[in-house]
Amino acid sequence: MSVRKENVKFEVPFVEEIRKTGFVLENQIAQQLKSTGWTVISNKYYVDDAEETVREIDLVAYKCSKVQHFNVYTVVIISCKKSDSNAWALLSRKINLNDPNANFRPLHVWSNDKVIDYKISQTDNNSKYYKRVTELGVKEILQDPSVEVFAYQEMAKSTGKSQNDKAIFNSITSLMKAQSYEMSSLPERKKTPSVYQFNLLSVVGTDLVRLMFSGDEIVASNIDSEHYLASYIVNKRETFSRIRFVKSDVFSDVLKDYSEVP
């Protein structure tokens, strides 16, 4: 009869190889969320109706509080990406906050209460919500973008050579589509009086670089976080979403602000 040996050290470097993937980063972010009271759902699958494919989002986390007779949910949808060899470069320029073709204060809120739903639908509601939350002390999450990110590239850390935008593009689109799915699924599965507010985060396990364009000059600088206004056609409608790029080593500080969102 053979006896199974526990804790056998394998010759194959499984641990070293798995550390090269994004799974370690994803687990670290999930544990940080859980340790601060967030409920976390990992690797949630949803159907992309536009492409009729099954997609996956890394993390969906939420906190719930009771306000009068409502359950109020703050939701963060998170994409985790890691790269040892490439930095994420955000190509930026001076922003025009009065641009009539952009919505710099997008708000993604759902409620099954008719009165709250009516208030949400009002054209001036976004600005009122941003102002009220800022007055409560939540600063970083809803601040106006300081620059316009007009493109993005992965770039080799060793040479600076431009690679492509695939990983960054996938992170952005997966976040926006997951948000659309989550909001569209709520009417069927949520019956108790509730309010949901959604936030999108792209957590990056690599260097985050701003390439600032001004005339013929381009200045590179390392940053920890950047607000990006994304526009995408979801379910045949143009949708604006605020996506925040965050370096993984400052995520715990960033998370404190999201915990204060009412």
Gross morphology is: globular
Number of strands: 11
Amount of helix: 25-40%
Give Rg in angstroms: 20 Å
Main sheet summary: 7 strands, mixed
- Secondary-structure element series: HHEEEEEHHEHEEEEEH
Overall average pLDDT: 87
Q: How many helix segments?
A: 6
Q: Report the uncertain regions.
A: none
Beta-strand percentage range: 35-45%
Distance, first to last CA:
61 Å
Helix vs. strand class: alpha/beta
Walk me through the structure.
The chain starts with 13 loop residues before the first helix and ends with a helix. β10 and β11 form a beta hairpin. Helix content is 26%, strand content 40%. Strands 1, 2, 3, 5, 7, 10 and 11 form a 7-stranded mixed beta sheet that branches. A 4-stranded mixed beta sheet has the order 6-4-8-9, with helices on one face. The chain has 6 helices and 11 strands. It is of the alpha/beta class and 262 residues long. The mean pLDDT is 87. It has one domain.
Question: What is the structure about, briefly put?
Answer:
The protein is of the alpha/beta class and 262 residues long. 26% of the residues lie in helices and 40% in strands.
Spell out the key features of this protein.
262 residues; alpha/beta; seven-stranded mixed β-sheet
Q: What's the helix and strand layout?
A:
Blueprint lengths: L13 H5 L4 H13 L3 E10 L4 E15 L2 E13 L3 E8 L15 E3 L2 H8 L3 H11 L12 E9 L9 H24 L4 E12 L2 E7 L2 E6 L2 E10 L2 E11 L3 H8 L4
Parallel strand pairs: 3-7, 4-8, 7-11
Antiparallel strand pairs: 1-2, 2-3, 4-6, 5-7, 8-9, 10-11
